[in-house]
Amino acid sequence: MKKLWSVLMLAVLLGSCGEKKEEKKEGFEINRTKTEATQEVSEGVPVDLNNKGIGPISSLSFDGDINQDMAAAGEATFAAKCTACHMTDQRLIGPAVKGVYERRSPEWVMNMMLNPTEMLKSDPIAKALLKEYNNAIMLDQNLTEEEARGLAEYFRTL
Fold this sequence. Notes:
Layout: H1 2-17, H2 68-81, H3 106-114, H4 116-122, H5 124-132, H6 145-157
């Protein structure tokens, strides 16, 4: 009888060892994993280097060399007026600006800075970006053409 009792106890112990109980935690928990889907441009936003946008800039060509003084002024403007919504190399409320000229024409970039309200109403790329960024509109910062040109030059340095 003692042997039977010992065997039963051993079976109960072994049977209970294999089960792992999951503890319920109180409160909020979030698990984030980095995926390949964190690219700046999604499937819904087209890349178009021919679209010049809507606004005062109809033609813009960059010199071969970056104008360092203009880029420094653009960097200061970026720090003062743009960093609430944009980072240089990561998505934030708005898109990252690094590599913008691989996706947009210089004229489009300048017109978006100078005329965001009309661009968001009428330009197909601006509309797609608005949708991509949860309808977070780009506010008009009342930039001068000189400030926008400095920003455009700064974006070339990134």
